[in-house]
Amino acid sequence: MRAGSRLSRLIKRYPIMIKRCFLFLLLSLYCCYQSFADLYPILLRMDLAAVKDTYSVQEPIVFRLGFTNNSTKPYSILLPGNKKNGSKLIYLSVFTIEGNSYREIARESREILMPGIPQPTSGNLFKYIQPGQTTTIPLFVNDTIQYKRHIEAQHLLQGLGPGRYAVLAWYDPWSDTLSAYVFNKKSPFKKDQVLDTNKLTLPEEGLNSNYASIVITAGKPVEQKTVPTAFCPLHCRLCQAIEKEKWHTVQNIISRQTYCSGKHKEQNTDSSWRMPHRNITWLSDMPFMIQASLPAYTSRNFIFKNSKGYHYFYASWQLGIIYKNRSRLRSMLYMLGFRPRFSTSNTGYYKLISFRPY
To answer: What is the pLDDT of residues 54-108, one digit of tens each?
Structure first.
């Protein structure tokens, strides 16, 4: 009774204040029910890692950047191709490490600086990634020899003295008009955006990777010790040919390990170019789709390493073959009323037809 009487006296004494408090409480509850967080999952993950922990100021720094599809369905993304001008798809930032704090000291230019006239077919590439799959590309920093020739080496961060650094990779596809075909651009200032479920959704400011730690020393480059394997033994013929720049021998080794039929039979060799090798820095993925008609063609890119630097090579294969003479003979026999049973094509044919630097 006393509590009720006290409450009634307060209401009579402060009626306006009580009403305002009650109204404020109702408005607060209404706002809580009406408010929402405009959150969405980032299903594309970037992982940056240096090939080795310590580099000299005299040698290029090599990173591997992986893109992982963390969704439950396949998606396409953009990767650097043979673009000669415009803005980079991927660029780097360098941080110094002081205790638990990181301070950005350098960020490379986004402008692509390559001499020559851009080709009509130059540009970034589409890459189809299955759920849970990771595709990896190389990044070469301060490779002054290949800097103006290859997009993989279009990363210049000069002036880094001896010390410990953290490197961050940025992925910004919005400067390329092709990004509209594979990504939804999510803006923090626009609500009720219509998003295509067949595209990955990325923030308007782009994505960033993890921090990759490296140590730069003032001494001479130290070769990373490699452990011999069954595919790359101590005296690996493939790596020895790459070191001596015997590119015809490298081509023959790859050709002998190409599975094909006819007069070019598969031969056993002491190593396999498909497996990791100490002198093969990077081997591109196989194309996701190949034309169905015969003959079809596929290709892969190599980046070889030896004591003189990095060497970029392009290899292409013919898949399947149509025997012209058999086809003519079969057509003639059909015209004469016969029904020949011999085959005029071979889908198991797989031959290396080109191996050249690019």
So the answer is: 999 889 999 999 999 999 999 999 999 888 888 999 999 999 988 888 999 999 9
Whether 261 shows a pLDDT value over 60: the answer reads no
**pLDDT tens digits, residue range 153-186?**
999 988 888 999 999 999 999 999 999 999 999 8
Omega of the bond leading into 188 within 30 degrees of 0 (cis): no
For residue range 7-40, list pLDDT tens digits in order: 566 566 666 666 677 677 777 766 655 555 556 7
